[in-house]
Amino acid sequence: MARTLIICEKPDAARRLADALTESKPASYRKYGLTYYELKKENDILTICPALGHLYTVGSKEEVPRRRYPVWDYVWKPIHEVEKGRERQQEWLRAIEELGREADHFINACDFDIEGSLIGYMILKYACQAEEKAGRMKYSTLTKTDLNNAYLNVSSNLDYDIVKAGMCRHEIDWLYGINFSRALTESARKHSERYTTISTGRVQGPTLNFIVEREIEVKSFKPTSYWTIEVTVDVDGTIVKAQYSKKTLETETEANHIVENVKGKSGKINDFKETKMKVSPPYPFDLTTIQTEAHRHFHTSPSQTLRILENLYLQALISYPRTSSQKLSPSIGYRTIFNGIARCPEYKNLSSELLTGATLKPVEGKKFDPAHPAIYPTGAMSKTSIEPRARKFLDLIIKRFMAVFASAALRLNQKASFIVNKEYQFYINGSRIIEQGWFKYYHPYVKPTETIIPPVEIGKEVVVKEIFAQKHFTTPPPRYNPSSLIKEMDNKEIGTKATRAGIIDTLYKRGYIVDEAIRPTLLATKVIEVLTEHCPRIIDVSFTRELEIQMNKIETGETSHRAVVTDAIRQLKIIFEKIASQEKEIGKELSEAIMESKTQSVTLKTPCPNCGASLRIIRSKRTKKRFIGCSGAIKGECRFSLPLMQFGILKILDTFCKKCGFQLVSIKSKGKRPIISCPKCYVEGLANRRES
Fold it and tell me: What is the pLDDT of residues 194-232, one digit of tens each?
């Protein structure tokens, strides 16, 4: 019998595929820590084994000192040869190599996207030397039906255009990342003779620039004052709010003049209109949309959302989440999915209502992904318990899926106008829902508001009960949060649906950004200033977007992998010639930024209560313990100090103690929530306890 080796992307996917392709339980074996499955299928013996994500990555062709740049020669290597701590991947590659020697045919069954195509290809090419004998399975869910259909319709060749696009993306990202990071790091080291890693990348640079530019807008914003007229009126004994015809007024004098001329007066309704407005259902979820929606409802970061979605996908509860599509296909089986959803009591009535309709036709957006449809529930209900947070996500996806098949909601808008004192026009606005439509299917994720007004007709008297001028100030644009930042990256077409969340996480980990309402650190701001002055192309969105467009063209066969990489290297060489000529200036500016950033990170804004000098976090050379000490201690002028916790990551916060006004600090230990405390109150509390 012929033997076929099938490569899956993850262990759960391999187990599900093995279960789907046989009616009985597949035999499982272990080799060097890798669990694989064997089963008979017609005249074949199928061996199904998982990868562990990427087992190969880009690395330098030869050993190159880390201080040397630029580096242009690279090769694909086993990931354990490039990155530390990858012993498990080394053992899995060893197991796959041995399984490959026994196989006659090969199938790449990794996720059907750029990364999955690349993961499988690299294993088949380097570990099995069999890429020319391999086929490709394509599926969007891990349900038994989809997996069997994918196996029966396996293509005879690999998807080489997608593979080449994936290779190109990884190679260019490596060229950008290693060379720019080395250039910035080495420039600073030569000036200061101290080593501090400074990194940037092809997408990381423009993304960080978005944040820095927004911070500049926020800090340079000068609020201006304006006034509004706030008024309540009596209509047939019912008190309602009314709006002045001019929404905002520039001067207080004008606002007060209106108040004085309208106060205590009355008017008559001179116009009344009712209009019906359709509110269309939302589009099906693509990855970016569900990441922003989940942040709004569940306060999860884009990367947390993606992890939860991938777990739901691996449980065969939803379709493949890394999609940019807002379209659904009848081939997924709308009625089958709704019948599956209806088996769950909480969705039974809503799902049954949709099934009774004449046709099932979804509302769709413009975005299209040739590999996968929009995210949808499979209709399968998990036989094992789903953890509470994942259940919320599944509920969101099921209700969104139902909503896109529902009718439009219908809103009745009402507008009555009246004039007071012959010249001051006001409006009474009402709005109510007259047909729920998709609203009822998407509850509680949509909460339509209503403003009920009493019956009005032309000529009816309106009495002004209360009126005053309210002062306001214009506000700066909001800072990005992880959700709005990923949306901005999507709008500007930089990064991919699969990588954007990881780029934001990287900016946090490298200390470039902080907080939920994202603020750049001092170092991030200085790095962007240096890049803007000396190599602005690395943070230019249009430059990065054009590269994305060229890489996407590889997938469609419009250009070649080698042509895109060659052109990228050509452009990078021009940039690095300029960097080399300005290395001293770049090094000086970065070194000063690093020193200033380090000083800021250990200096408190609260002055010393004894002498007024600055307080700093200090680590004792003798005991290695950290504490808050006065900078005056260097000159022997002040001995003030406060103890600090000795475990966890310490961070100075921009908030102050409500009791004593001292600056707060937080301590973060692995796997635990941060502890926020006031060092001064903590010491005073200890002293009080000792006295008592």
Answer: 777 888 999 999 999 999 999 999 999 999 999 999 999
396 and 496 share one domain: no
Does residue 30 sit in the same domain as residue 135? yes
427 among known catalytic residues: no
Q: How do 266-279 and 409-420 pair as beta strands? A: antiparallel
Which of 608, 271, 573, 251 has its CA nearest to residue 418?
Answer: 271
Q: Are residues 11 and 150 in the same domain?
A: yes
Q: 435 in helix, strand or coil?
A: strand
CA distances from 620 to 73, 623, 625 (A): 46, 5, 5
pLDDT at 312: 96
616 and 563 in a single domain? The answer is: no
Question: What are the pLDDT digits (tens) for 286-322?
Answer: 999 999 999 999 999 999 999 999 999 999 999 999 9
CA angle 298, 303, 305 (to 5 degrees): 35
Query: By C-alpha distance, which of 42, 43, 73 is closest to 58?
Result: 73
pTM score = 0.84
Closest C-alpha to 341, from 393, 382, 303, 369: 382
| Whether the Cβ atoms of residue 436 and residue 443 lie closer than 8 Å to each other | no
Q: What is the CA radius of gyration of the chain?
A: 31
Q: Specify the length of the chain in residues.
A: 692
CB 244 within 8 A of CB 366: no
* 635 found inside a domain: yes
Q: Which residue has the tokens 């209503």?
A: 450
In degrees, rounded to 5, the angle at the alpha carbon of residue 285 between the alpha carbons of residues 284 and 290 is 150
Give the range of the structural domain holding residue 666, as residue numbers without chain letter. Answer: 604-691
- Name every residue whose Cβ is closer than 8 Å to that of residue 185 and which is 6 or more positions away in sequence: 195, 196, 197, 198, 199
Cα separation, 592 vs 510, in Å, equals: 18
* β-pair partners for 263: none
| Alpha-carbon span 177 to 200, nearest angstrom | 6
Is 90 exceeded by the pLDDT of residue 385? no
- Tell me the per-residue pLDDT of 158-201, one tens digit each, with 9 for 90 and over: 999 999 999 999 999 999 999 999 999 888 888 877 777 888 99
Indicate which residue of 36, 69, 313, 320 is catalytic: 320
CA–CA distances in Å: residue 263 to residues 104, 228, 421, 688 = 91, 15, 10, 59
- Measured distance CA(204)–CA(654) in Å, rounded: 26
Q: Quote the strand ranges of 584-662, DSSP E.
A: 603-607, 614-619, 626-630, 641-643, 649-656
Phi, psi values for residue 377, rounded to 5°: -75, 145
Question: How many domains does one find in the chain?
Answer: 5
| Token output for 167 | 């290779």
User: What three-state secondary structure class fits 136?
Assistant: strand
Specify the residue for token string 């590889």. Answer: 554
Same domain, 206 and 230: no
Q: Which H/E stretch holds residue 545?
A: helix 541-555
Please check whether residues 122 and 18 belong to one and the same domain: yes
